[in-house]
Amino acid sequence: MLIINRYKVLVVLSLVCSVVGMSGCSSLGVEPWERDLLAKKEMALTSAPIDASLDDHIYFSKEATSGGRSFGGGGCGCN
Amino acid sequence: MSNMVKGDRVVKCLARKGGFTLSFFSMASLCEVLIDTDNEALATELGLIAANEAWRIEDKYSRYDSKSLCSEINSKAGQVVEIDEETFNLFEFASQCYEMSEGTFDITSGILRKVWHFDGSDNVPSEKSVEAALQLVGWDKVSYSANSFLMKKGMEIDFGGLGKEYAVDRAVLLISQRSNAPFLVNYGGDLAVHGTRINDEPWQVGIEHPSFDASQSTLVTLRTGAVATSGDANRFLLKDNHRYSHILDVVTGWPVKNPPNSITVAAPQCIQAGFLATLALIQGADAENFLKEQNILHWSIR
Amino acid sequence: MQLKAKKTNLKAMLTTASCALLGSTANVSAQETWQFDTAIMHYAEVDRVSATEAIIAGTKKFNNDEVLSLKLTIDALTGASPNGATAQPTPQTFTRPSGNGQYNVKAGDTPLDDTFHDTRVQLTGQWTQPLLKDYTVSVGGNFSKEYDYMSASLNGNVARDFNKKNTTLSAGMAYAYDVIEPEGGIPKPLSEMVVGDSNDPNFNDDFNKTRIASDESKSTIDLLFGVTQVINRQMIVQLNYSYSTVSGYMTDPFKIISSVNKNGESQAYLYENRPDERTKHAFFGQTKYHFDSGILDASYRYMTDDWQIDSHTFDFRYLIPFTNGHFIEPHFRLYTQSAAEFYQPFIAQDEAKPNFVSADYRIGELDTYTVGLKYGMPLGDGNNLSFRLEYYHQTPKDNGTQAIGVLKEVELYEQVDAIIAQVTYSF
């Protein structure tokens, strides 16, 4: 029962945060011509996908957590 | 050095330090494409791509070529002419230029050359003849859709103010789609660069003074984007000690006062740089301030 | 005529106008080229496991914003990993997972099983394309095979842009099916490991008595919901929530737990057993910020599951570009997890045998940190070369279990050091 309560709180909390955040979202952002920096490949959220997939594989094998950024790692018999 | 012949149009290939230079003639200019690669076959292929595109644009939009689409449109003034997607897009861009310049950048202004002959003589036209010519000038007198175009009989369109810069940007698009090699495209002073050179070296370009006075040339260092130059090129009229520059204010029909001898503008794309350089020139004495206010990188020679 | 002091932004209007002209005029068929990334990585723990992994990935962008990416991964594992048993002040002998032979461990050493020499091949494909205005869909699949393990998965994702592409919402789902077929078969949970002479004619019979199947499988369903928001010209933020449920065989058939007497001396080794259900929730937040020239990438992930494991991951990268096009990027990662509720470093002989138990330190209480550096350079022609060197340190921790007898004299939570070295070439 404790488990359910704990994550229920967290889920509700983050939903609230994102609703609050979203309402302020329309004032955030840039015009299409202001995307010069954001368009750089180094500014992509996953700017080095090969590094990310190699690291994901290492940490999936050595730790108990996987994924979060994208779909969980796996696909191998290492954990 | 090798030549590839296409009719009487030739593309020459010369080796240089770090790569090759491909050169050819188009749109009344010496056109060059500098490519950083040690693969000569690739360089010549890319040079041909640029040349063929430049010649294609020239054949389609040059008003000096009687077989061009531009000449067809001009000869059919007063009737509806069918146009394609590329022409429609160019007209859309010209429309934007017309709006942004508050009417001073107008591709229907070519007619004015019929009354103004900038041959260094004192043949300044009369007010009446300028007025008459102005009746046949004005983008607001034109109507077009995605596949058709109509202007008043007697009017003329001239892609001269956009053609070369458009060809530069198209060359950049086509070459960059075909190869990763860094390159520079220079069509008679309207140029653009693409790619990162080894050690992130910039390209160094000299902008010539209109009077070809080497001591007054400007050295421009470019890593990205494009540069276009608009200028006097020694075309003017001299009467009563007053020098009439060949830059015409399309709204009044008369030359702009005190434009710089030459304005060079840097922008992400050549067609943008070309428009801004022409627009700045039209500001006359105020050219440099105008560009400063808009935060546009430029060099001027007076 | 002079233009009055213009309030309108010429640059902005021009950019939009020329984009329309040069973006849409594609009357010459565009050459679509492949972009390749290749990498080799070596992971080496001190005195333990080493792995070498090679990747070749290709991405092709088509005219209408469609993207195809394909990736081939090959990795090879060698070395020894802990089998879950505790160290003892006396030497120990264990039977290999296949039942073919034994191995010995010196007194005081953490028992490591060096049976694993495995090569794995993995193929990944992903197709992304725009769908209607503002929507992007992506589907992909993954297939991985090694000597005793097979995994196949499918994934799908929809994203929608809002607010001039400043906000993007996405939802995705993935399904994976894994089969494990270990060489010695699946051990009976909590049964005793048969340790003896494998040449003895009775050994095989005894060994087989501890086996209940030749293979097992598990299914995983993942759901991922995310929002990406551009904050300003220099900053972008992403928040994700993921839900994962796994059902099936999650026990490690190669891992055992030491059953010790009142004096901490090992009396038997029991095969571990994990629950056949696991539900995880993860919350992930990332921000990228472009300073004058440097770029910061900072992220945090919180994971909680019904095995009672909670974890926190902090990751920081700072990219420093040089004027010659080279760059250096320091990296720091911090990770901490709490133990699974069925984790124990050992079992007391007279304790009631629990349903689920495992001594695998990777689901115990664990702290890790990574410090690294990446160096990259452009090679002209659009090609890039980069080098990455990282140091990874794992500190397994005491989850509160009291060490008894001789176990107080041995290292129950041995720390692990590893080096990660990688070279990437993109062209």
Characterize the structure shown.
- The complex is a heterotrimer of chains A (79), B (302) and C (427).
- With 79 residues, chain A is mainly α.
- Chain A has helices at residues 2-23, 49-62.
- Chain A starts with a helix and ends in a 17-residue tail after the last helix.
- Helices cover 30% and strands 27% of the residues of chain B.
- Chain B has a 9-stranded antiparallel sheet with strand order 1-2-3-4-8-9-12-15-16. In chain B, strands 5-7-6 form a 3-stranded antiparallel sheet, with no helix packed on it.
- Chain C is mainly β and 427 residues long.
- Chain C has helices at residues 10-24, 201-209; strands at 34-45, 50-61, 67-78, 81-82, 92-95, 102-105, 112-113, 118-131, 135-146, 149-162, 167-180, 186-187, 211-213, 216-232, 235-248, 256-260, 266-271, 277-290, 295-305, 310-321, 327-337, 347-348, 365-378, 384-397, 416-426.
- The longest helix of chain C has 15 residues, at 10-24.
- Chain C has a 16-stranded antiparallel beta barrel with strand order 1-2-3-8-9-10-11-14-15-18-19-20-21-23-24-25. Chain C has a 3-stranded mixed sheet with strand order 17-16-22, with no helix packed on it. A two-stranded antiparallel sheet of chain C has the order 4-7.
- Chains A and C meet through helix 1 and helix 2 of A and helix 1, strand 1, strand 2, strand 3 and strand 8 of C.
